[in-house]
Specification:
- With 106 residues, the protein is mainly alpha-helical.
- The protein is built from four helices and no strands.
- α3 packs antiparallel against α4.
- The longest helix has 27 residues.
- The model has no long low-confidence stretch (mean pLDDT 90).
Length: 106
Amino acid sequence: MSDLFKQSLTIAALMGLVVLVYLGFLVITGQFNQVLLKHEKFWGGVCRDEKQGPPAVLAVVAGVLLLTGLVRENPWLLGSGFATVVWCYVKHRQSLVEDPFDQNEP
């Protein structure tokens, strides 16, 4: 594996570790629900009620980061692109979950 990919995967892993530490801090301090509500409000404003909107936006951002990182041979951009791909997958899995209380009763 080339040195560029080793560096970029290390950077993506460090970004993931920082996110996990941040989420742990939010859980410990009790602010996790506030952040979730702000997160849903943000994506609701960007994508309205479209379920596949957030993964599509993240896929475009990941593609731009990956291509720019490859062209410029920048491990920071490439690592950010890899981290965004993981975030896109998580948002896609979240969009597949259906709320049982949203069903209309006859």
